[in-house]
Amino acid sequence: MTASVVLKFPVFSITEFRPLDRQIPKNHPSNSIKTYLYLKTPRFPRQLKARTTLMEAAQSGSSVNTSTNASMKLLFVEMGVGYDQHGQDITSAAMRACRDAISSNSIPAFRRGSIPGVASGQMKLQIKLGVPHSLQQSLDIQRVKSVFPYGEIVKFEVVDGGMICSSGVLIEEMGDENDDCYIVNAAVYVGY
């Protein structure tokens, strides 16, 4: 004879079976506690709907207002972060963020003709940078664009983001005017 104890949690439940009959010797295998873990599928009270981005709509062929956007078929998104700890140059931080986004990837499909009907010169890029608002006017967009070795940049967007924080040290020999560290986030959308 056994008794069971059930503990219920949102994603799993634990059931323990404990023997009640004390007539069985204590060292007998059936006299031990047996624990079973049951995983449950999480239940959501309502369906979650993801927002469709402009590029996703363009990719699926939906009606999209492309007056400021050149439509492209999105293949993937690369993300990076860049810092300028000394010299307070937001453009350097943005260039590092873009290099970080593209440096760990190789895109042989465009060079080898792996995408039917798409030549290597048809790669399109959309760049989105998160830059602290107070520094956006000093960003040299042409220098940032020079980071990309190939691909047509069809859209370049700068939004509020990134961060200004203390680097913890001011080094005049490195061009520091203060101890500010500039941080920029980059998203590079690649398609054709």
TrEMBL record:
The keyword Coiled coil does not apply. It comes from the Eukaryota. GO terms for molecular function: GTP binding. The keyword Nucleotide-binding applies. InterPro entries: CHP02058 (IPR011719), Tubulin/FtsZ-like_C (IPR037103). Pfam families: Lin0512_fam (PF09585). Keywords: GTP-binding, Nucleotide-binding. PANTHER family: 50S RIBOSOMAL PROTEIN L34. This is 50S ribosomal protein L34. It comes from Salix udensis. The lineage of its organism: Eukaryota, Viridiplantae, Streptophyta, Embryophyta, Tracheophyta.
